[in-house]
Amino acid sequence: MDANSGIILQVTDLHKSFGNLKVLKGVDLSLKKSELVFILGPSGSGKSTFLRCCNRLEEAHRGTITFNNINILDAGTDINKYRRQIGMVFQSFNLYPHLSAERNVMLALRKVLSLSKADAHDIALKQLDRVGLLDKAESLPAQLSGGQQQRVAIARALALDPQIMLFDEPTSALDPELVGDVLNVMKDLKDNGMTMLVVSHEMSFVRAAADRIIFMENGYIVEQGPPEKLFENPEHQRTRDFLRQIEH
Amino acid sequence: MTQWERFLDTFFKWDVIVQYLPAIGRGFVVTCELAVLVVICGISLGLILALIRSYQIKIINFFIICLVDILRSLPPLVLILLFYFGLPNVGLNFSGFMVVILVLSFVLGAFAEEIFWAGITSIHKGQWEASRSTGLGYSQTLVYVILPQAIRMTIPPLTNRTIAITKNTALGMVVGVGEILNQATIAQSFSSNASPLMMGAIAYVLLFVPIVYLGRRIETRFAWKKN
């Protein structure tokens, strides 16, 4: 553990292409413990790809990603061991439709952490309670609203007690009135010191909650800083244009 | 003799029915044995092939696809005759019973593989990603997340295909297996009456209607609302 710097995730010179299309062209980022960092940028800027490289759902072609001083991009790294410590929440929830909410949460506890059924069940209920869905434990995903499904998905990731949470546009697929519940859960996570890397365009939430904002475009990080600086006084014209567009 | 009496005399002649009921009964048992073994072996083979295929090893998949396509395009009767009359020349002497089981299991396995494979590939990529992101491995994801969803979707086409192929146990007749149709045609030639054939037809209905019904039950039971 690198206790002095407090840096939990360190990305250096990350490159990623899909065929001939270069999506990431050398991205550097360090994430401190308990930091909430948002990634903004136009569509196609590489922000989702970057996030997905952080737990190797996408394989980067060059660069390093150091998680607690271990380069998880090393060929010899057992990525499954690190994925349980890097939780991920998806835009489309991706709950397992054949399993109830609690069994969605329990699956990895049982099969990855090899917990007993009773222990896994206890943790699942605790996590569902944390996201306000204890009474929906036995519901199938199809019986839940989008916001509830997303909160179950967050509980599923939290159950493994991750050190970082990655959120890939967690509220983009939700009806506007359901966004608040999910954001409240994320706020609660921040208050409890969770380290989070979030792709989101919920600008009022970004403004209120972010420790730092990263603006990406065309495979590069164009600019980064605390929200006051980025929103009030961005250095780059492109950042300015983007923020003006998104806030009308 | 009225038309109705002639009809009854041709297809439902009581003394013929009584005389050949035991033979048709034996045929029914043999067909049941064939059907059960073919269904179990064929579907297991199909599932195993589909699972192997999902590991995307090019050379192995090439062989699976070739095998499956050949088996699907050949009439089962051709394969039965090939196996029964051809294999003894290379020292493999299978009984007619074994040949029918082998051939129909291979054929059902080939179709089932395609059906399972279609089911596996139809599951959204997000399901793989969600599972892998929580640390489950490829095989664990396949078994606990993908297959339970894929199999539910495959039940209707799989039931249809299973019935269609299992009915081919009647081909056992040409290699001397004492199944329903064989017993019925023997009885028909001895009695010079079509009643045994009608008994055979009824025996097939008795055997397959419950399977059709069972398929529908499983389908409803496994149905769950999709997003």
Largest sheet of chain A: 6 strands, mixed
Question: Which bin fits the share of residues in helices of chain B?
Answer: over 70%
CATH architecture designation of the domain at 32-177 in chain B: Orthogonal Bundle
**SS summary, helix count of chain A:** 9
Q: Which structural class best describes the helix and strand composition of chain A?
A: alpha/beta
The CATH topology of the domain at 32-177 in chain B corresponds to MetI-like fold
Report the helical percentage of chain A. 25-40%
CATH superfamily of the domain at 32-177 in chain B: MetI-like
The description of the largest β-sheet of chain B is:
none
With strands numbered from the N-terminus, the spatial order across the biggest sheet of chain A is 6-7-8-3-9-10
Uncertain spans of chain A: none
- The helix-and-strand class of chain B reads mainly alpha
**% residues in beta strands of chain B:** under 5%
How large, in whole angstroms, is the Cα Rg of chain B?
22 Å
CATH class of the domain at 32-177 in chain B: Mainly Alpha
Order of helices and strands of chain A: EEEHEEHEHHHEHEHEEHH
Distance between the termini of chain A: 44 Å
Oligomer: heterodimer
Number of helical elements of chain B = 9
Q: For the CA atoms, what is the radius of gyration of chain A? A: 18 Å
Structure write-up:
The complex is a heterodimer of chains A (248) and B (227). The relative contact order of chain A is 0.16. In chain A, helix 3 runs parallel beside helix 5. Helices cover 36% and strands 25% of the residues of chain A. Chain A is globular and about 55 Å long. In chain A, the strands form two sheets. In chain A, strands 6-7-8-3-9-10 form a six-stranded mixed sheet, sandwiched between helices. In chain A, strands 2-1-4-5 form a four-stranded antiparallel sheet, with no helix packed on it. By secondary structure, chain A is an alpha/beta fold. The model of chain B has no long low-confidence stretch (mean pLDDT 92). The interface between A and B is medium-sized, with 28 and 22 residues.
